[in-house]
Amino acid sequence: MRDPKPRRSQAPSLAGKLRKHAAWLLLLWLALPVYLFLSAAPPAAAPPLRRSAFLRSKPRALAATRAGEAAPPPVRIYVYDLPPRFNRDWAAADARCARHLFAAEVAVHEALLGYAGRAARPEDADLFFVPVYVSCNFSTPNGFPSLSHARGLLADAVELVRRELPYWNRSAGADHVFVASHDFGACFHPMEDVAIADGIPEFLKRSILLQTFGVHGHHVCQDVEHVVIPPHVSPEVAHELPEPEKSRRDIFAFFRGKMELHPKNISGRFYSKKVRTELLQHYGRNSKFYLKRKRFDNYRSEMARSLFCLCPLGWAPWSPRLVESVLLGCIPVIIADNIRLPFPSILRWQDISLQVAEKDIASLEMVLDHVVATNLTVIQKNLWDPVKRKALVFNRPMEVGDATWQVLRELEVLLDRSRRRKYVGSWRK
Fold first, then answer.
1. Average pLDDT of the segment spanning 64-68
2. Which of 175, 96, 197, 92 is nearest to 129 (CA)?
3. Pick from 32, 73, 349, 414: CA 20 to 30 A from residue 64's CA?
4. Cis peptide, bond prior to residue 244, ω within 30 of zero
5. pTM above threshold 0.85
6. What Å distances lie between residue 317 and 144, 180, 241, 348, 415, CA to CA?
7. Bridge partners of residue 129, in order along the sequence
8. Which residues pair with 397 in a beta bridge?
9. DSSP alpha helices (H): ranges in 231-320?
10. Are 339 and 319 in contact (CB under 8 A)?
């Protein structure tokens, strides 16, 4: 059989293919340089999100802090320029107004006035700060500020803001911020039973309070949107001991302050819930405990020499000793059940302090001895972190990471949380 005649291949040649697609190849050759140029150029900026964008993965201030950025929290706050009778006149009348333990109301006001992110126009604001100094009436015989005028002065300020400007009425004060740096916050009384009976003024119950008082669980005097802030201590204290790790600490446990032999005072109330009296009874003769009842202007030099600084409650759970102890590198021993402390996410109080239950005063020495034998150096290393110390100081002007900066950060978190609630509520309707 003869071989079959070979058939001509039906597949086109390479040259034919190139001729067929020449136009497409030419177009590709021309487009390639354009593509390479555009891909090398920076991408166009995405349009910025408006502040009314409710759903964010996390608050921007918190994200900035964790990323180590130095930018202040982005919350924009407008500071009302109230007549001087609400603030500046009080400060001018007595220098103690800007220095004493309740002076956060002055410090926050002055820091916000110099804050670069402050809203110049109220129309651009997220929040509104109402600067009223209610802790500067030093008319009492013992020299402590009188709070008898606080409610009336604040009511006058709110009425002025409500009458003259539209922003309070727009939210019924929900986006307005006040400082209540007193024993029991905006209940405005140093005795807890009276403070609870009086409660927070009705006109403040929808606003945001910056207050030193805070406890875990329900309490009438914190039944309002609030941020727990540290008590005011002069910024100069932070510079008294710039390197606390180098201080010679020859005092084991220190406390100087009011310790009554008979804790029931003239009002019939028990001061410090008897805690300070029990401290004196258990450890007044113990050489390891440096307990003093008399005032001493240079008491901070004693704190700087101490390993442990006792911070028992007084009338209220909080005390400026908390801040002073941290600034001077002395481990705070907090004896105040259920106390809530300022800025916990930054300070991590469980790493820099000890908390002893009020009922465990008799075991205090054993607790402190155990810490010395186990993790004293770890706590001290955490305590001496400059970031933690700075977070408790109200600088003027405000500095990144200081107490006012932390307040703005907390307000940003509150703002985000509030807006998420509103968004979810509107979505469910």
1. 41
2. 175
3. 349
4. no
5. no
6. 18, 15, 26, 18, 27
7. 79, 177
8. none
9. 237-240, 275-283, 299-303
10. no
